[in-house]
Each structure stands twice: as C-alpha cells, then as structure tokens.
Amino acid sequence: EPIQERFFRPHFLQAPGDLTVQEGKLCRMDCKARLLQCFVWLRPFPIILFTLKVSGLPTPDLSWQLNGRPIRPDSSHKMLVRENGVHSLIIEPVTARDAGIYTCIASNRAGENTFSLELVVAAKEVHKAPVFIEKLQNTGVTEGFPVRLECRISGEPSPQIFWKKENESLTYNTDRVSMHQDNYGYICLLIQGATKEDAGWYTVSAKNEAGIVSCTARLDVYTQWQQPPQTTKPKKVRPSASRYAALCDQGLDIRAAFQPEANPVHLTMQSGLVESDDL
To answer: A Pfam family this protein belongs to (predicted)?
Structure first.
C-alpha cells in the first residue's frame, strides 16, 4: 500500500519566559523543539490513521537573534545541544549590551516556529567594605545616669552590626541596655541608669560581603562623690604676632601704646606672655 510521508513545522515543548540577570553573572536560556512527523496510509475505503512521531527526528535547526540580529557564537555567547534535545544559549558574563529582545527560531523543510523573550540586565551590585566615619569615643558617666556609645559607619551593602562588652556578645535588647541604628549609618548603644558593672571595654563591629571593621572604646562609671579625671591640659596664653592683640591681653591703653611718646615701660609687659606647648 502506498504511504505518504508528510512533515509539519516544529513546535516548542519548552521555552523560557522573560529574564532579569545581574550584570557580570551567567545567563542560560533553554528550549526544546520537536518535529511532528505524520504518516498517512491510503486505503480503498475512507479511513485515515494518523500517527504522531515525537522522537525529534529529524531534528529542527535552531538559531538565535537579539533585537532582530543573528547571534554568533563567541567567547561569551555559546550555543549547546544536549542529547535530550534541549537547546541552550549561554551568556557569560552578561553585560549591558546583552539586554534586549531574544528570538529563537526553529525551522525545517515544512516551515518554522519562534518564541521571544526579554532579557533585562540589572546594574552590577557595588560592594564597599565598611569604614568608620565617626569612631567610638572613651566615655565617662556618673552612676545612675544614662550614657550613649555612638559611632557612624558606611558600607555597601549596608553592614551588619555586632556589639561586645569585653568578650561577651550583646545579642538582644533589654529594658536597660538597647542597640540602635538608622538608615544614615549612625550606631548607638544606650544604657539607662549606668552601674559600676557597666564599666569596661566595648567593641562595635560592622560586616558585609566586602569586609569587616571594628572599633573599641572604654566606658568608666563614677560614683556620686568621684570626679572624672582631668583629661585636658590647662590652656596657656597663646602668643600673638599682633602687637595690638598682645597689648590688649595685658589690659593696656592701645592708643597710648602706639603713640610715639608712649612710655617704653608699657611695652615691656609683653614679655610676660607664656609660650604655648602646642607650637
């Protein structure tokens, strides 16, 4: 009996949807197309039997386009075909130039079929290690009063913050001791009603994917009768290159001092100035 072999254009059993990929990453597009092959047996009586063959033979040809232009294989664009009939377009690394409308075309002797998708390339995430804009400062407080240990940190992405007192981690807030931070990088450890047990070394650490940084400062807690130690040296009279300013410091009559007939004795008082140790 005569047999007619007819072919139908391929169709896609698997096709990806729109994609969003971060710049610098890998992008993979998978699709699967098979050819429908139809055999028709012609008999004397009007009975037609269709048998669909979905084995994928003969295999349709596939090609890829970006915004209507053919994509050629190169170092960053690869086209693979696996044994199970899955065709893949692999782009690595993805750049901003790869964004657009992708079209896959499957064709054979009977015709062709296509599908399209949009690839959006997201900007590459910036990574910056944390840095201290303002560091912790040694602090003293009278027992029973509140105290704040503050600093400011920047980093991309926003770093995680960790507090420690001596070698003990502060992992949760209490009614008396609480940890705070805002969207501007300000970090604060608040102690309500400081006690002698709160005195010690405090460390704050900031960590993200790019690195980690730490800063340590001391908190001293004084009793009511104690006085905080003097941390600054008493200021001395700063010498001045200006004759006018120096004489004003001594309480002299400036008008009389600069007249030609002024008594030279007035000018000798300038020698009593004390030189600053800062110069």
So the answer is: I-set
User: How does 126-159 read in b/e, with b if 16+ C-beta sit within 10 Å?
Assistant: eeebbebeeebeebbbeeeeebebbbbbebeeeb
- Going from N- to C-terminal start, the domains of the chain cover 8-120, 128-225
Alpha-carbon 106 to chain mean position: 42
Sign of CA dihedral 221, 226, 232, 235: positive
Helix (H) or strand (E) holding 249: helix 243-249
Query: What sign has the CA pseudo-torsion 46, 52, 57, 59?
Result: positive
Q: Residue 204 corresponds to which tokens in the numbers above?
A: 């704050």
Q: Are 155 and 184 in contact (CB under 8 A)?
A: no
8-120 against 128-225: fold identical: yes
Owner of token pair 């008008």:
255
Q: Does pTM surpass 0.70?
A: no
Query: What class does CATH assign to 8-120?
Result: mainly beta
Q: Is 17 exposed, middle or buried (0-12, 13-18, 19+ CB in 10 A)?
A: exposed
CA 244 from centroid of its chain's CA atoms? 57
Q: Are 204 and 215 in contact, with CB atoms under 8 Å apart? A: yes
The 10s digit of each residue's pLDDT in 149-205 is 999 999 998 999 999 999 899 988 999 999 999 988 999 999 999 999 999 999 999
Amino acid at 62: L
The residue length of the chain stands at: 279
